[in-house]
Write a structure and sequence with these properties.
The complex is a heterodimer. By secondary structure, chain A is mainly alpha-helical. Chain A has one domain (10-128). Chain A has five helices and three strands. Chain A has a three-stranded antiparallel β-sheet with strand order 2-1-3. Chain B has one domain (15-199): 3-Layer(aba) Sandwich (Rossmann fold), CATH 3.40.50. Chain B contains six helices and seven strands. In chain B, helix 5 links the parallel strand 6 (134-139) and strand 7. The N and C termini of chain B lie far apart (38 Å). The chains are: A mainly alpha, B alpha/beta. Chains A and B meet through helix 3, helix 4, strand 3 and helix 5 of A and strand 1, strand 2, strand 3, strand 4 and helix 6 of B.
Chain lengths: 129, 201
């Protein structure tokens, strides 16, 4: 913290977000369709020209697209990178999916795993860390 | 990552989820941080779900959501194969968040402190009831009396075959061993289940 009183801001982290979260999502608390798994992978066409000047997209939408344009990322990574709560991130992703700006890859669930080779690969990878 | 672009189809992207559970202050954040690049994750939860019995949400003027913080870490094994760690919230009133985290989880670690073993009961119960493979990792705090794994197993009344390991949540190498133990255990359990399914037709 800065001790100089002249430099102190009247708000701090405890004040909470200064823009109410429902303002970011235009009042929506839940995504419209797909519920994005935290570890689902989101990718976007690496073409900023497609969305940069789109007036229907807010800054958070653009921030998400900028990140995914650099490489596919999980929903959890996007929420952490954009410093947004998971619920808000999901609403934004739902908007982007609706206009076809992102792709979603669902993770493979353990029960459907084809064989043990994958888990062996994970074990080898962990040992090599 | 072209493989990830096949929208919704079976892709070569594999993400495995491991939960790190346990009582408040048992070292979940420390462990996730020791083995992966940890990042805080926030979730805004309606109070009507988080504290149904205690919070009156009838008035619109009242705060209606609460922020719950989760620990989150990722370990990339190779491109297209990653392990995701989620530290579950310690407080009981956020159980509903566990349900989402537990969905599709490969396995779980219940981190235990032998001075407060009773704090681990809830997590042990949760994973046993949902048939999620888990191990108990006893975090050896400085000054805490060292217990033998069998003693912990008895005290927690674990189902036979549930591994108990000792660890130091601050140590990366120790955390790695814990993860290896949970993946090995989950792998065994999945093999057993597959065999059972094959037998029953």
């Amino acid at each position: 913290m800065n001790d100089d009183p002249g430099q102190q801001r009247w708000y701090d982290e405890d004040a909470g977000p200064l823009v109410r979260l429902y303002a970011l999502t235009r009042g929506r608390a839940r995504p419209r369709q797909e519920v994005f798994d935290l570890i689902a992978l989101i990718s976007a066409p690496p073409d900023p020209a497609r969305y940069r000047n789109d007036p229907t997209l807010g800054p958070e939408h653009t921030a998400v697209l900028d990140l995914t344009a650099r490489g596919a990322r999980s929903v959890a990574d996007l929420a952490a990178d954009c410093d947004l709560p998971i619920g808000v991130t999901r609403v934004i992703l739902s908007d982007l999916l609706e206009v076809g700006l992102i792709h979603v890859s669902r993770p493979l669930v353990p029960d459907r795993m084809p064989d043990e080779r994958l888990l062996q690969e994970v074990l080898d990878g962990l040992r090599a860390l | 990552m072209d493989s990830a672009r096949s929208d919704g189809q079976a892709s070569s992207y594999v993400a495995l989820k491991i939960l790190v559970a346990g009582g408040f202050g048992v070292g979940k954040t420390t462990m996730v941080g020791a083995v992966s690049e940890i990042r805080p994750l926030r979730t805004e939860e309606p109070l009507s779900e988080a504290g149904r019995s205690v919070d009156d949400t009838a008035s619109v003027n009242r705060k209606r959501t609460t922020t719950v913080a989760l620990d989150y870490g990722r370990i990339t094994i190779r491109e297209g194969l990653a392990l995701y760690l989620f530290g579950t919230p310690g407080q009981d009133r956020f159980w509903f968040l566990w349900d989402e985290l537990a969905q599709g989880a490969l396995g779980a670690v219940v981190l235990a402190d032998t001075r407060r073993l009773e704090d681990s009961f809830a997590a042990v119960d949760y994973f046993e009831h949902r048939d999620i493979p888990f191990i108990v990792a006893v975090n050896s705090f400085d000054g805490a009396r060292r217990y033998r794994c069998e003693e912990v197993e008895q005290a927690l009344d674990l189902d036979p075959g549930t591994p108990v390991v000792l660890c130091d949540a601050r140590e990366r190498a120790s955390g790695k061993e814990v993860l290896i133990a949970v993946v090995e255990h989950a792998s065994r359990r999945h093999k057993e289940r597959r065999a059972q399914r094959a037998q029953s037709g």
